[in-house]
Amino acid sequence: MRGKTFRTRAAASWLAIVVAAQAHAGDVHIGRDQAGPSMHATDAIVEMLADSPDPRFAALAASASPTDRRAARLADVAVRAPDDAFVQWVVASKAEGALRADAIDALVRIAPDDAATWLFALSQAVAAGDDAATAAALARMAKADRFDDRYSAFMVEWLRAAQDHGPFPGADGPRSEHDTTVLAVSFASAHALPSFRPLTLACGVPGDAKVAVDLDPVRRDDCRAIGLLLAARGDTLVSRGIGGAVLRAVDAPERDEQARIFAYQYGAHTNDIASSHELMGEEDTMRTLAADWREGGTEMAVLERRLARAGVPFLPPDDWRAPERKAPPAP
Length: 331
Description:
Elements: H1 2-25, H2 39-50, H3 55-63, H4 67-80, H5 85-94, H6 97-110, H7 119-128, H8 131-143, H9 151-164, E1 169-170, E2 173-174, H10 177-191, H11 197-202, H12 217-233, H13 237-249, H14 255-280, H15 282-296, H16 299-309
Antiparallel strand pairs: 1-2
């Protein structure tokens, strides 16, 4: 039971780790040597899904495959699902060279209205120090009407795969729904989220080195539009938190209200996980969470469903204010 308690708390607290890491250090990676004693069982799941006729399941397997098999599997799913944005996102995120470039081109064709599509071009431009290309990528992101960082899609597809293939194997027999949900969180956190650092660099978020403190008016406006899109309409708390950081960096008029909403929803998220665990126990909590993901489809929809069940509003009341942080005790 102690191991399950630890994994449940880890699943509940992943957000704070990812937000901090994404804002300041780039990609989050979980190495194969960090995955614990159930790695062989996890490998069995990957191999099972690699042979799936469903290209999305095969893409999940490709994203988590060892290096010597990953490229071939990515190439295979790219050909099998040329018009599937989820599959092409996986390929663009994990492949290299021409295969990656082709997947990025496919995303531009399939989902030009998704700001996340342009993160790839922004990353290349920022890495190359190309101000014109950086400005062009930011302009495309600013005109987009949605932002899908694919975390939610990874969660839903992992849970759908578990349903379609029966109980996934575990180290000691079939995995419970609890363990399957924790596994989905782990894989989505490790393999789905893009690096937001090119965006925070380009928009001058404090904490990043070599940023232009005085953004030109056009870039400031684009960053404001991107920040507001992520903060208000991002489908995960991570993307909404990054959006808030961008709004603060450009001193947008919406910054304080979006910060208030984020503080409320982040607090509601952590309180809901803790109270659900206390009231229902781990197995029931994770079973309900899995059902919410399957039916809600995005992290924000899941949060809204869970808060509604508890009788808590999704948006903060007008008079709600974030609690003041207490100063640490003097040494």
